Amino acid sequence: MPWPTRFTVKQISDELRRCSTVNEVQSWYAFLFKTNTASLNPFLTNQFITACSKHQALDSAMTAFADADNPNVFVYNAAIAAAVNCFSPLQAQRCYLLMLRNGVRATSYTFPAVIKSCKANSAARLGECIHGQIGKSDSALRVHVQTALIDFYSSLGRVFDARKVFDEMPEKDNFAWCAMILAYARAGHVTSALKVFDEMPVKNTVASNTMIRGFAAAGDIESAASLFGKMVERDVVTWTTMIDCYCKHGRYIEALELYDEMKASSARPDEVTMATAISACAHLGALELGKSMHLYVSTAGFEIDVYTGSALIDMYAKCGVLERALVVFFKLPEKNIVCWSSIIDGLAFHGRANEALVMFDKMVSSNIEPNSVVFVSVLTACTHAGMVNEGKRRFRQMTHDYSIFPDVEHYGCMVDLLCRGGLLEEALGMIQDMTPEPNSVVWGALLSGCRLYKNLEIARIAADKLTALEPENSGYYTLLINMFADANRWAEVARIRAAMRERGVEKTSPGGSWIEVNKKMHPFAACDRNHPSSENIYSVLETLDSQLKLIGRTSSPDLAV
Fold first, then answer.
1. What is the pTM (predicted TM-score) of this model?
2. Which domains does the chain have, with CATH numbers?
3. Residue 561's pLDDT is what?
4. pLDDT digits (tens, 9 = 90+) for 195-240
5. ∠ at Cα 541 (538, 542), nearest 5°?
6. Residue 151 to residues 146, 164, 211, 351, 400, Cα–Cα distance (Å)
């Protein structure tokens, strides 16, 4: 880069703001360092640290901060904000403590950033101390400072402390009202959140979006949909929040219908919207619709980031097109733990256990530390392939090498693995020794293993636990009845059926499925006549049934259906 002999401070500041890469920012700092400009001009140090923050170059920002002679409050504020922005809350707190030791007085712009750092690493005691310092400063009544405190206490689940800060505010802007609504929504106090929402002088889109999220978290989908329907103005966050609400509660068809409605409106989906909608396609197996979304993302100028990429990998894998999932994975310029987890899970889902384990080892060698979710995929791969010893080794690796405490999902995988290998007693022992309370999935895996190996004694233990956990689920009774019938123990069959009648247990949830026709999903359930074309569907079924019966009467015994 050719350097002019002289620059004004404004020219340097403008150039730093225009930098598009980390290398450009660092080149400017080299120039400033060489000319001894940075250490003598706090304003330029401030601008350089801010530019580093924009490009996630925290090391360079902290180097400039350390090189600064007698940094002023603006330099400290920039350093704290950069550390928070680069996901290093502890570094932000160190800068703040250094600021206090050097006698530099914090301003109303210092406190929100350092409070955000306390929220990021749940530093409750430090946050309380800073709250006390705010009370003694000129910033005590600043709305944005108090709003940061509300958000901090809310993140700790201390909704009453958040409410106290809110009530003590002499003035409240829309951000403060939204922060209080979110505090109640996070804590699951939907009624209180709705009360604050109703009291809000001017309801904006952000408040409505927060309220929809609160209803969704509480499982009240109908109220969320009702509020969504009443909103006059909807931004992309509104649409995405409602689509995500449907997805999180298994209502994927409604999520995709809302996505279509969004595209027909003036709102334009963003990367988060697309990742959410693609996830709905994954759960429904809607391959053609998922492909069209992939095409839209590619042609609309969106960057396929780690979130959209992970959703595409998951969608293609669950729709049976694993090769496409691998192409998406390998083309991603950046891969986080979610991307690796998605492709490992996809390989496991398709029974390619060895490749899944190799991919896991590649992830570890790429300095990505595995989490509990990835180990569920790893153990699932071992289960599908019947790799009992490898599964046990990976389970030990998870607990010993990575200090990940196994939860119910991990134990469920291990029980399923042991049962498939015929180690029913060992599986029962693991269940009895596990720290988290075993759920119906764990006991269900044991019961399925018992049926496979015809172990009626352990099956009875599992069935007793399952009927206690889910007394109205007829599936477990049916499985046990079939096992006793196979063993010609008809007295036990009669006893179980009598118990079902006594408890009023019957099959209440008919089987269901869906098909994709012309990129539209059509759900079906047993005895369902709600589909618009149900008359035609049943007419065709009756015709097929008649033809099958005719074939059965006229065919030879060897060909009878």
1. 0.71
2. 406-528 (1.25.40)
3. 31
4. 999 999 988 898 999 899 888 888 889 999 999 999 989 999 999 9
5. 90
6. 9, 12, 15, 45, 36
Q: Which residue has the tokens 């704290």?
A: 80
State the pLDDT confidence band at 528, using cuts at 50, 70 and 90.
Answer: low
For residue 142 the two structure tokens come to 């600043």
Say how far apart CA 495 and CA 482 lie, in whole Å. Answer: 13
For 29-68, b/e burial (b = at least 16 CB within 10 A) is: bebbeeeebbbebbebbbbbbbbbbbbebbebbbbbbeeb
Using DSSP, state whether 524 is helix, strand or coil.
strand
For range 29-51, the mean pLDDT: 79
Return the structure tokens found at 148. Answer: 């940061």
Contacts within 8 Å (CB) and 24+ apart, 356-364: 356/381, 357/381, 357/382, 357/390, 357/394, 363/337
Indicate the helix (H) or strand (E) that contains 231: none
- Mean pLDDT estimate for the chain: 88
Integer Cα distance of 104 and 461 in angstroms: 68
pLDDT per position as a tens digit, 454-477? 898 898 899 889 888 888 777 778
Distance of CA 90 to the CA centre of its chain: 25
Question: How far is it, in rounded angstroms, from Cα 170 to Cα 68?
Answer: 39
- Residue length, the chain? 561
How many other C-beta atoms lie within 10 A of the C-beta of residue 132? Answer: 10
Of 521 and 74, more confident: 74
Give the residue-averaged pLDDT of 170-193: 91
First CA to last CA across the chain, in angstroms? 81
CA–CA dist 239, 227 (Å, integer): 12
